[in-house]
Amino acid sequence: MSEQENEPQQGLDEKQKRQKDEVGNVEKLSEELEELPPQLKRFVQATLSMQRISSSSLVSPIQEKINEQHISRILDIVEKDDERAFADTESARKYTIFTIIIFLVFFGSLTIFLVNKDIAVYQEILRIIIIFGGGFGSGFGYKGYLEKRRK
């Protein structure tokens, strides 16, 4: 446990040393900058300040605290999420197949019983089913259109 505590401390010590070296280099550069023309001096100072900002923001504090245990937990969570997504997709497929089978059984039984007895009633029921299906399909298509438009 003491080794694990020492590793982050050593990393912090090295980081502090690098920052002190950078401060010393900046002081040396500031003396050299005094001899440059004003336009070039401003350009070099802007470049140096941009380098300081970009180098200090490359490593976030959270990244320094992540270890192997965190990574393995994240991978486990992602794996479970993938399994759940697969199960959801599988259940949605089963539901769709079950709904189609029910509709086909209903349509087949309707055809068998009404075609031979009363064609006019069969045509009227078929027309209503087609109108309902068209309205349902257009509503479903419109919903999909709106969802794609939001993205």
TrEMBL record:
Region (Disordered): 1-32
Listed transmembrane segments: 95-115, 121-142
Alphabetic keyword roster: Membrane, Transmembrane, Transmembrane helix
Protein source organism: Dendronalium phyllosphericum CENA369
Composition-biased stretches (Basic and acidic residues): 12-31
Protein known as: Uncharacterized protein
